[in-house]
Amino acid sequence: MQKYICKKCGHVYDPAEGDPDSGVEAGIPFEALPDDWVCPQCGAKKTDFEPEDAPMPGMVVPVGE
Ligand SMILES: [Zn+2]
């Protein structure tokens, strides 16, 4: 699953591990985190996170469905 990295502190959210300190079980995708979830390290909002590995330029990723 896609990991997300905090743009402010570099903390990585790994869905395989979840965020036990915040009550997030392992296996929860970043997109499924509650909107009030914040970075466990610096308190940044979800909007301050970005996918850790951006798709290669020219690589088309189907969206939706
Ligand atoms: Zn952070």
Protein described:
This protein has 65 residues and is mainly beta. 0% of the residues lie in helices and 12% in strands. Strand 1 and strand 2 (12-13) form a beta hairpin. The radius of gyration is 12 Å and the shape is globular. Bound molecules: zinc ion. Zinc ion (ZN) binds next to loops.
Outline:
By secondary structure, this protein is mainly β. It contains no helices and 3 strands.
Q: Numbering strands along the chain, what is their spatial order in the largest sheet?
A: 2-1-3
Oligomer: single chain
Spans of at least 5 consecutive residues with low confidence: none
Total strands: the figure is 3
Q: What's the Cα radius of gyration?
A: 12 Å
**Could you state the order of secondary-structure elements as H and E?**
EEE
Strand residue percentage: 5-15%
- The DSSP helix count reads 0
- Going by helix content, strand content and strand pairing, the class is mainly beta
Termini distance?
17 Å
List the helices and strands and how they pair.
Layout: E1 4-6, E2 12-13, E3 49-51
Antiparallel strand pairs: 1-2, 1-3
